[in-house]
Design goal:
This protein is of the alpha+beta class. Helices cover 25% and strands 32% of the residues. Strand 3 and strand 4 form a beta hairpin. The longest helix has 16 residues.
Length: 96
Protein backbone atom coordinates (compact mmCIF):
# COMPACT_ATOMS: atom_id res chain seq x y z
CA UNK A 1 0.00 0.00 0.00
CA UNK A 2 2.89 2.40 0.69
CA UNK A 3 4.31 1.78 -2.79
CA UNK A 4 0.88 2.42 -4.31
CA UNK A 5 0.64 5.72 -2.42
CA UNK A 6 4.01 6.83 -3.77
CA UNK A 7 3.03 5.74 -7.30
CA UNK A 8 -0.14 7.81 -7.06
CA UNK A 9 1.69 10.89 -5.78
CA UNK A 10 4.55 10.84 -8.30
CA UNK A 11 2.28 9.67 -11.13
CA UNK A 12 -0.14 12.54 -10.52
CA UNK A 13 2.75 15.02 -10.54
CA UNK A 14 4.10 13.62 -13.81
CA UNK A 15 0.66 13.70 -15.44
CA UNK A 16 0.05 17.25 -14.22
CA UNK A 17 3.49 18.77 -14.85
CA UNK A 18 5.15 16.33 -17.27
CA UNK A 19 4.39 18.19 -20.47
CA UNK A 20 5.69 21.45 -21.81
CA UNK A 21 3.37 23.70 -23.74
CA UNK A 22 3.71 21.61 -26.85
CA UNK A 23 1.96 18.69 -28.46
CA UNK A 24 -0.73 17.18 -26.26
CA UNK A 25 0.43 13.74 -27.27
CA UNK A 26 3.97 14.10 -25.86
CA UNK A 27 4.61 10.65 -24.37
CA UNK A 28 4.77 9.94 -20.68
CA UNK A 29 6.17 6.48 -20.13
CA UNK A 30 5.54 4.33 -17.09
CA UNK A 31 7.27 1.06 -16.27
CA UNK A 32 6.37 -1.10 -13.29
CA UNK A 33 8.22 -4.29 -12.39
CA UNK A 34 8.92 -6.67 -9.54
CA UNK A 35 12.48 -7.93 -9.08
CA UNK A 36 12.64 -10.50 -6.33
CA UNK A 37 11.26 -8.75 -3.27
CA UNK A 38 11.63 -5.23 -4.70
CA UNK A 39 8.93 -3.21 -6.46
CA UNK A 40 10.30 -0.71 -8.98
CA UNK A 41 8.61 1.98 -11.05
CA UNK A 42 9.98 4.44 -13.58
CA UNK A 43 8.22 7.49 -15.02
CA UNK A 44 9.70 9.31 -18.01
CA UNK A 45 8.41 12.63 -19.34
CA UNK A 46 9.45 15.68 -21.35
CA UNK A 47 8.19 18.31 -18.93
CA UNK A 48 10.17 21.13 -17.37
CA UNK A 49 13.11 20.27 -15.12
CA UNK A 50 12.65 19.88 -11.38
CA UNK A 51 14.73 22.14 -9.15
CA UNK A 52 15.34 21.29 -5.47
CA UNK A 53 11.89 19.79 -4.92
CA UNK A 54 13.29 16.45 -3.73
CA UNK A 55 14.72 18.08 -0.62
CA UNK A 56 11.70 20.23 0.20
CA UNK A 57 10.24 19.58 3.66
CA UNK A 58 6.64 18.64 4.36
CA UNK A 59 4.54 21.81 4.08
CA UNK A 60 2.62 23.31 6.97
CA UNK A 61 -0.64 21.53 7.92
CA UNK A 62 -2.79 24.29 6.39
CA UNK A 63 -1.00 24.19 3.02
CA UNK A 64 -3.04 22.72 0.19
CA UNK A 65 -0.13 21.64 -1.99
CA UNK A 66 3.38 20.25 -1.89
CA UNK A 67 2.91 17.00 0.03
CA UNK A 68 3.33 14.46 -2.78
CA UNK A 69 7.11 14.33 -2.95
CA UNK A 70 7.48 14.48 0.82
CA UNK A 71 5.07 11.56 1.22
CA UNK A 72 6.84 9.55 -1.49
CA UNK A 73 10.24 10.17 0.17
CA UNK A 74 8.85 8.92 3.48
CA UNK A 75 7.30 5.67 2.20
CA UNK A 76 9.86 4.58 -0.42
CA UNK A 77 13.27 3.04 0.11
CA UNK A 78 14.56 5.14 -2.80
CA UNK A 79 13.14 8.04 -4.78
CA UNK A 80 15.39 9.17 -7.60
CA UNK A 81 15.13 11.90 -10.20
CA UNK A 82 17.44 12.81 -13.03
CA UNK A 83 17.28 15.10 -16.03
CA UNK A 84 19.10 14.13 -19.20
CA UNK A 85 18.66 16.53 -22.09
CA UNK A 86 14.96 17.37 -22.13
CA UNK A 87 13.85 14.15 -20.42
CA UNK A 88 12.90 13.71 -16.76
CA UNK A 89 13.19 10.24 -15.23
CA UNK A 90 11.75 9.28 -11.85
CA UNK A 91 12.77 6.03 -10.16
CA UNK A 92 10.74 4.62 -7.27
CA UNK A 93 12.00 1.65 -5.22
CA UNK A 94 10.25 -0.19 -2.39
CA UNK A 95 11.63 -3.35 -0.80
CA UNK A 96 8.81 -5.69 0.15
Amino acid sequence: MLFESALAEIGANVLTHGRLEGPADAPIEYLLRLEGHTALATFTDRGPPLHNHLTRAMPEPYSEAGRGLAIARQVLDELGYEREGDINTWRLVKRL
